[in-house]
Structures are given as C-alpha cells and as structure tokens.
Amino acid sequence: EKSGYEHFMIKEIHEQPKAVRDTINAYVKDGQIDLSETGLTDDFLKSLDQLYIVACGSAYHVGVAARYVIEDLTSIHIEVDLASEFRYRNLKLRDHSLVIIISQSGETADSLAALRLAKDKGVPTLAIVNVIGSTIAREADHVMYTLAGPEIAVATTKAYSTQLIATYLFAVEAARARGEITQEKADEMVTEMQTLPEKIERVLNDKDRIQWFAAKFANAKDMFFIGRGLDYAISLEGSLKMKEISYIHSEAYAAGELKHGTISLIEKGTLVVGVMTQSKLFEKTRSNMVEVGSRGGYLMGLTTYGNYSIEDTVNFTVYVPKTDEHFMTSLAVIPLQLLGYYVSCAKGLDVDKPRNLAKSVTVE
Ligand code: M6R
C-alpha cells in the first residue's frame, strides 16, 4: 500500500498536490466558490461577528494560520484556541458567532468536547473534517469535508494541507458574501488557489537538497523555527513535525519574542530556521536571523524565489514559488515536512509510528 515509498509519511507528502486539488474542486464550481453543500448561506456569513476556531495539534496550527487570513480579508473577530483549553475557560460566547472545529479524524476527544460545549451554548458550529461520518462530522451543524483521503502516518501532512485549503475557501467566500472583497477579487483568488497543486509539486522536486541538508542535523539537540505573522503559524507546524518524528527538541518562536528569553539558548551550530514568506515582515525577520547568527546559530532561510539577498544572511536557503501571500503556508510547510521526515530517516526512527503517539487521540 506504500506504492513503492519507504514510509506512509513520504507517500502522503507526495499526495498533497492531489489532495489539495480535490479539496478545491469539491467546493469550486465554474471558477467560483460554492459552499451550498455545507449549508453556510450568504446571509449567515454576512451576519457573523465572531469566530472561535478550536482544534488540537496540527489542526490548531491551521487555525493559527487561518486567523491571519480571515482577519486580513474580513471584519470578523477571531479567537483561536486549543480544544483542551477552550473547554475549561469561562468564555462568554458572543452573539452572531460561529465555532469552527478542525479535525482530521473527527474523533479527537477534546475537539469533540469543545463542539458539544458550543452546541450546549446554542452557538452554530462548523466542522472541517477529513473522515466522513466521524463523530464530529455527525454532530456539527455544518460540515466542510477535506478530501485528503485516508491518512496513515501519525504525523499529519496531507490532511493539514487540505485543512488550510478549507480555511482559504471559507475566508474568501465570507469576504465576498460580506462585500469585503469584490466578486472579481474572489475569482482571482480562486484562480490563484488552483495553481497551488502545481506549485507544491515544484517544491517537492527540491526534496533531494533538503534530504542532504537534513542528514547533517541527525545529532542535533535543539532547533528553532522563527517567523512573524503567517510565517509564525508555519513555524509552529515545522517545529511540531520535527519533534514528533525525530525526537529533537524544537521550538517555534514569534521572531520578535526571541530577545525576550529564548536567544540565550542559541549555541554554536544550533539550527535556526527563519520563515520569511511575507514581504512586509521579511526585513524584520531577517534582522532577527542576523542576531541569532551572531550568537553562532546555523541559519536556514525559507523564502520565495526572488528574495535572493537572503543568501547574504543565512547559511542555507530554500526557495518556494510565489503565490498570493495569504496562501503561502501551503507552499512553505512542504520543505519543513520534508526536513522533519529526512531527519527522522537519518536517525533510523520509526517515522510512521513515533513513540508514545497515536493517530487519533480519543482520551482527554
Ligand atoms: O484528528 P485531529 O486532526 O483532531 O488530530 C489532532 C492532532 O492530534 C494531530 O494534528 C496531531 O498533532 C498530529 N499528529 C500532528 O502531526
């Protein structure tokens, strides 16, 4: 079933162009977003004042990315929370709200409990779920399915990528329905979204370089992933991929926070990955990279083709194609998935079934 691949994880990494394409195609008709299957109407999207996005693990990282995207395109207020925290807060859910639960399995105990809590409080719910007929899908008022297909590796890759797409579709459609972007702008963004599968393919073609780079860090003790804005959301996911399958301690930091404590951990040779895909934040994060570099950090820069000046600052660069900057997570996460994967392989670990972890976390 691994179709010639060594592990399910690398097979699923390669299935991302298709998974992304299938998810877009499920909700785009004649070049325009159509969410009618989910029951989310224009009137409902117009009425929204507040979103609560609730999830665990990588699905939570999708929520962190989605907040930047939805916030930038619409006037809706957004809170993102871990399901295991959301449940125990004494949160006053506001009127005109929607609770969005993101879950690959649709069975995660804390995410399910958060969904039930929202329903008890009378707040409408939308589930972004991969497994058809799962408990979260059955109980939510509205469901948007991701079309990743079955995901076997414990470390999520293609489900994460399709969840991102679901949030882009929601963001663009909400903005259009509310009159916050024009139909033309929405159409243009859909056209750009449709180029993502081919661009992901191009990033995958670079995998040998990342494999070569990864092999040097098999004995690393610590790693850091830094970025601002959407690049911070990407860092969170890159760092989780690394720690869960390679057992290397890693942390994601909002680049501006480094100076408030963490920079003291940088020693000679510590790998620091700087994610710099957002043009208005590029120079800010670059100066943070200079700071860690001067403390001995070994620097990998992740940015878009064209930003070649980064080579003056970092030791190793990975470029990804340009796209609408709202969609950048979809491209920039790929090299980070590959980095985690190849470090794990270089250490000879059980990539698909990392110790102490389960694919679906049905206990609290
Ligand atoms: O099935 P879910 O999407 O609800 O699972 C949530 C997390 O357990 C999951 O994303 C986990 O963090 C992954 N193993 C990360 O690769």
UniProtKB/TrEMBL annotation:
<keyword id="KW-0808">Transferase</keyword>
<dbReference type="GO" id="GO:0005975">
    <property type="term" value="P:carbohydrate metabolic process"/>
</dbReference>
<comment type="function">
    <text>Catalyzes the first step in hexosamine metabolism, converting fructose-6P into glucosamine-6P using glutamine as a nitrogen source.</text>
</comment>
<dbReference type="GO" id="GO:0005829">
    <property type="term" value="C:cytosol"/>
</dbReference>
<keyword id="KW-0032">Aminotransferase</keyword>
<dbReference type="GO" id="GO:0004360">
    <property type="term" value="F:glutamine-fructose-6-phosphate transaminase (isomerizing) activity"/>
</dbReference>
<feature type="active site" description="For Fru-6P isomerization activity">
    <location>
        <position position="359"/>
    </location>
</feature>
<protein>
    <recommendedName>
        <fullName>Glutamine--fructose-6-phosphate aminotransferase [isomerizing]</fullName>
        <ecNumber>2.6.1.16</ecNumber>
    </recommendedName>
</protein>
<dbReference type="GO" id="GO:0097367">
    <property type="term" value="F:carbohydrate derivative binding"/>
</dbReference>
<comment type="subunit">
    <text>Homodimer.</text>
</comment>
<keyword id="KW-0315">Glutamine amidotransferase</keyword>
<feature type="domain" description="SIS">
    <location>
        <begin position="40"/>
        <end position="180"/>
    </location>
</feature>
<keyword id="KW-0677">Repeat</keyword>
<dbReference type="GO" id="GO:0006487">
    <property type="term" value="P:protein N-linked glycosylation"/>
</dbReference>
<dbReference type="GO" id="GO:0006002">
    <property type="term" value="P:fructose 6-phosphate metabolic process"/>
</dbReference>
<dbReference type="GO" id="GO:0006047">
    <property type="term" value="P:UDP-N-acetylglucosamine metabolic process"/>
</dbReference>
<keyword id="KW-0963">Cytoplasm</keyword>
<feature type="domain" description="SIS">
    <location>
        <begin position="213"/>
        <end position="354"/>
    </location>
</feature>
